[in-house]
Amino acid sequence: MRGFQKPGYACAIVVSFLVIEQVFAYSNPSFYLGNTKTVDIAIGILTLAVLAYNKRLSPRNIPATVWVSAFFFVFAGISISWSPDLERSWELYTQVIPLTILASFLAPLLIRKPGDLNDLLDGLLMFSIPMAIVFAFGDRTGRALAILGDFKKMELQPLASAQLAGYMTIIACMKIAQVKSSRWLYIPYITAAVFSLFTIVNSSSRGQLLALFPITLLGIPIVTRRSISINTIIAIGITCVIGYGAYYIVSNFDLVWRWKGDLIRSGASGRLTMIASLLEEYFSGGGGVFLLGLGSSASYFFLDAYCHNVPIEVLCETGIVGFALYTIIYVRSFSDSFSRIRSTDVASWADGLGCLLLIAFYDFLISFKQGSILGGYTFCCINILAMAAFSLKSVPQSTVVQLQFPLQANRWKPPLVLKQKG
């Protein structure tokens, strides 16, 4: 039962769920194709068992932001009643209910202590490495990892693997910036970052790669809470080297055909056309539509696909009401987390929370080019971030007592500061 005392690792499994499922499918296709829900059910049972063992199923443990996320998801379901294709919308909605409950509302409950947050990040790094190896060297058909041979051909999701690889790069670079002991520890982190880069490039996921470098270059100095140190400089330097490696690969190898200029321009043009079409329907719908939206999954009716831009989809499908809830979730979570990072003197929380903040912001950036409000994982990382920031309130802060000495020789002595752990 000792493993049940590490809820952070269970949370890492949930965050890595889609990719773990794909690695499982690739490594054992004959079993997976006949038992496609086995991994889903197993992870759901594991999550509930860990929560029950650690007594974390109480509603009192849930921050307001996660309740807002839950209300948003319920409102999206209610909006199906005025969607142009009720039957298809309801089918899509019911498909993601189990995954949404698991990823967005149960997984955050696994993060309540500093050790949980550190285990989450270590677990993500640990689970990502075998994923990166499989996705870097496995059989491919175009962008996707593919199950070939005697089995039914199956192409697995390239975006999920690229997204988790982005998490791995952020965590590795943050770990380098925080190393306090031997710098030999750089080696596994650099290796993890290189493998993750190759996974992103090999999947030709342009948005993940473009969003990754501003996050690591600008985010690390901000969230480390320290003045620029040699470790921070090294982390930024490694990020630059990895970035140059990505530029070299996309400039010299045929496997990244999607990086050709004409294809990038046509892809961007196609996405903008989809967004414009959906916005046109939304703004021509009148006051009721402006307030409540076109209805959940309306983009599938008007575009025959999801919009590829979550904020625009939220606005058009759920109106001003849904967009206001969506904005509250992100603004509140980011502001609370950043204020906790800057104010707390509990270093283990601050470092982990800073890394998680970068991951959530990375998710937010790539939501402008992929994803859907019914994607199942829409609020996963942001809700985990909200839970971590909320839990930090209950961490005992140091009691600081300042003693001023009397004036001696026409000058004040520096104050004596005593810190006692609360």
Short description:
The chain has 17 helices and 5 strands.
Features:
422 residues, mainly alpha, three-stranded antiparallel beta sheet, two-stranded antiparallel sheet, 17 helices, 5 strands, 67% helix, disordered C terminus
Question: How are the SSEs ordered, and which strands pair?
Answer:
Layout: H1 7-15, H2 17-27, H3 29-34, H4 38-53, H5 64-78, H6 86-106, H7 114-137, E1 140-141, E2 144-147, E3 154-155, H8 158-178, H9 186-202, H10 206-223, H11 230-252, H12 261-283, H13 287-292, H14 298-303, H15 310-343, H16 347-366, H17 380-391, E4 399-403, E5 416-420
Antiparallel strand pairs: 1-2, 2-3, 4-5
Helix pairs in contact: 1-4, 1-7, 2-7, 5-6, 5-15, 6-17, 7-8, 7-9, 7-16, 8-9, 8-10, 8-11, 8-16, 9-11, 10-11, 10-16, 12-15, 15-16, 15-17, 16-17
* Class by alpha and beta content: mainly alpha
Structural domains: how many: 1
The low-confidence parts are: 397-422
What's the pLDDT, averaged over the residues? Answer: 78
Query: If strands are numbered along the chain, what order do they take across the biggest sheet?
Result: 1-2-3
How many distinct helices? 17
- Strand content of the residues, in percent? under 5%
- Biggest β-sheet strands, sense, barrel: 3 strands, antiparallel
Gross morphology is globular
Helicity level: 55-70%
| Gyration radius, in Å | 23 Å
Terminal CA distance reads 30 Å
By DSSP, the count of extended strands is: 5
Give the H and E element order.
HHHHHHHEEEHHHHHHHHHHEE
